[in-house]
Amino acid sequence: MRCFLVLCVFLPQIWGLEVTPIRATPLKDIGLRIINGDEAFLGQLPWQVGILGRASWGGYFCGGSVIGEEWILTAGHCIDGAISATIYTNTTKISNPNRVVSQSAEFILHEKYNSVNLNNDIGLIRLKKPLKFDDNTKPIALAIREPSIGTNVTVSGWGVTRDSDIYTSDILYYTTIDVIDNAECARIFGNSVITDSVICANPGNPHTSPCQGDSGAPVVVLDSCGKPVQIGVFSFTNGVGCEYPYPSGNSRVAYYRDWIKEKTGI
């Protein structure tokens, strides 16, 4: 598996000293983590999917969201180089024998995806067979407007609970963190990474990991009518560790709304 994890030290800007950006690290390459999350129950997050991918260099696990009967939204680096993928829906436990298992038919990676700075880190998976929707498997609405600074967002995924853990969780967890200003985020990761297409979120207090869930996981808010809306796709975190209080970066769904519609018709 490719690994971009680089341990860097964040130097505060003192007496004109230029900040050394922390390397933005794809969540797929540091494992799947949720720190201080809550266990989800079946039907609570019916858009959540698990993606077991296969590439020439090995296997990996990512998250994603159901946006249509045949379409899964995920991070671009989750399908970059992918040969095939198995998608799990209708479950909060990967081992659940009643889970629904689907296979990929097509991968659509954003044409301007950049694996170095993770710009345009968004992708789509078309399924071989359409999903059947019920209370436990439903598509999520996609944002057309941007959330304001300080908005609470929910992130979810299957993950370990500590940096020291080796194995990912069988159980789906979720937690809530806050949207922060991109300028604050750019001071940590640099302007080449934090562009208008990225939305950043801060770890909570008490600390919840900035790499909640796994790559491609949905970042969700409730609109004014109480309807869940996906505003982001989990993209990257810092290379220091999930238990460190640094922000995470997500691809803005509203920014890519036209691209998604062009590719899927949704």
From TrEMBL:
<dbReference type="GO" id="GO:0005615">
    <property type="term" value="C:extracellular space"/>
</dbReference>
<protein>
    <submittedName>
        <fullName>Serine protease P160</fullName>
    </submittedName>
</protein>
<keyword id="KW-0732">Signal</keyword>
<comment type="similarity">
    <text>Belongs to the peptidase S1 family.</text>
</comment>
<dbReference type="GO" id="GO:0004252">
    <property type="term" value="F:serine-type endopeptidase activity"/>
</dbReference>
<dbReference type="InterPro" id="IPR001314">
    <property type="entry name" value="Peptidase_S1A"/>
</dbReference>
<dbReference type="GO" id="GO:0045087">
    <property type="term" value="P:innate immune response"/>
</dbReference>
<keyword id="KW-1015">Disulfide bond</keyword>
<dbReference type="InterPro" id="IPR018114">
    <property type="entry name" value="TRYPSIN_HIS"/>
</dbReference>
<feature type="domain" description="Peptidase S1">
    <location>
        <begin position="34"/>
        <end position="265"/>
    </location>
</feature>
<dbReference type="InterPro" id="IPR009003">
    <property type="entry name" value="Peptidase_S1_PA"/>
</dbReference>
<keyword id="KW-0645">Protease</keyword>
<keyword id="KW-0378">Hydrolase</keyword>
<dbReference type="InterPro" id="IPR050430">
    <property type="entry name" value="Peptidase_S1"/>
</dbReference>
<keyword id="KW-0720">Serine protease</keyword>
<dbReference type="InterPro" id="IPR001254">
    <property type="entry name" value="Trypsin_dom"/>
</dbReference>
<dbReference type="InterPro" id="IPR043504">
    <property type="entry name" value="Peptidase_S1_PA_chymotrypsin"/>
</dbReference>
<feature type="signal peptide">
    <location>
        <begin position="1"/>
        <end position="16"/>
    </location>
</feature>
<dbReference type="GO" id="GO:0006508">
    <property type="term" value="P:proteolysis"/>
</dbReference>
<dbReference type="Pfam" id="PF00089">
    <property type="entry name" value="Trypsin"/>
</dbReference>
